[in-house]
Amino acid sequence: MLVKLRNPNGHAGWRGAWGRASPRWTYELREQLKIDSEDAGVFWMGWDDFLRFFAEVTVCRLVPHMMEGREFGWLPSAFNAGQAVAVDVYARTQIEVTLHQEPHRSRGADATPTLVDIGILVLKEESDGRYVRVASTERVIDHLVHVATELEQDGYVSRYLIVPLCLGQLRSDAPRKFRVSVHSSQPIAMTSTPTDAATLARAILSLAVDTGKRTPLLSHPLLGEVLCIYQLEDEAGICIVAENNSHFAMRVEVDASEGANGPSEGFISTRGLLVSH
Question: One MF term in GO for this entry (predicted)?
Answer without folding.
Answer: calcium-dependent cysteine-type endopeptidase activity
